[in-house]
Amino acid sequence: MVSDSDIARAARRLRDAERLVVLTGAGVSKESGVPTFRDALEGYWAQFDPQDLATPDAFLRNPKLVWDWYESRRNLLASVRPNPGHYALADLEDLFPQVVIVTQNVDGLHRAAGSSDVIELHGDITQHRCYDNCQGNPTLIDIHELDWNREKGPPPCPHCGAFVRPNVVWFNEMLPPGALERAVELAKAADAVIVVGTSGMVQPAASLPYYARWHGDAYLIDVNPERDEIAPICDLFLQGPSGEVLPRLVQALRGSP
Questions:
Q1: Residue 188's Cα: distance from chain center in Å?
Q2: Is position 38 within any domain?
Q3: Residue 45 has pLDDT above 70, yes or no
Q4: pTM beyond 0.85
């Protein structure tokens, strides 16, 4: 477990930061009980390869199969709540002029915890959109306002009739318009970057700490139970679950002189 002295050291270095960027990965959500992408393939779904269920071609080939899998994932998330790590990140907004969360997670837990500026690089599984984005990108659709035969698969878009799909980024798709570009610019301009619960292996998100290192003078902190790919370039590695480390960091920041 991370020492009190390392927590105090992190708080001292962060205290004067004005532009803070936090990059989060699956480890943060896993502490809330959210299964990872592959862990969600249980029971009936264990026979499938995730890449056979998470591509545009797979959806067009068998829209009901893909729709049903994502609905099963959404049902798994119905009882999931933010953990202390999520709330601690939201609390940072009281301590710094600018805090932006850049997340690889699709569960919406950062917003549920109160973070007001969240860049969701891979979308939000709790939302749906028109497959063709007929009213702009994205064309979000509230499926609770629709009436359709659920036994036949996804509903049609009420605007154009194309299928409604999950508002997530599938394999072979581009990230949401402007999301990566804004994240990169924020990383370059950041005073400090905190990397939380990510292996540092999923691109392009894994490049963000490197942008902060190469293009600016950001102080980099890595929070993870185990050393990861990002740790070697960080100024400080805080070993432990985010739900334990981050509340301690917030407490130290509030007590900093």
A1: 19
A2: no
A3: no
A4: yes
Dump pLDDT digits (tens) for 197-245.
998 878 888 899 999 998 878 999 999 999 888 899 999 999 999 999 9
Whether 197 and 231 map to the same domain: the answer is: yes
Residue 249 lies in a domain: yes
86 is catalytic: no
Q: Which domain holds residue 141?
A: 43-78+127-168
DSSP state letter for 145: G
Q: Are strands 164-168 and 123-130 parallel, antiparallel or unpaired?
A: antiparallel
CATH of the domain at 236: 3.40.50.1220
How far is Cα of residue 204 from the mean position of the Cα atoms in its chain? Answer: 13
Give the C-alpha distances (Å, rounded to integers) separating 129 from 54, 136, 154, 162.
Answer: 15, 10, 11, 10
Strands (E), 25-111: 98-103
**Of the residues 86, 110, 122, 128, which is catalytic?**
122
Provide the CA 55 distance to its chain's centre, in angstroms. 19
Considering its fold, how many domains does the chain have in total? 2
- What phi and psi, each to the nearest 5 degrees, are found at residue 19? -125, 105
pLDDT tens digit sequence for 83-135: 999 999 999 999 999 999 999 999 999 999 999 999 999 999 999 999 999 99
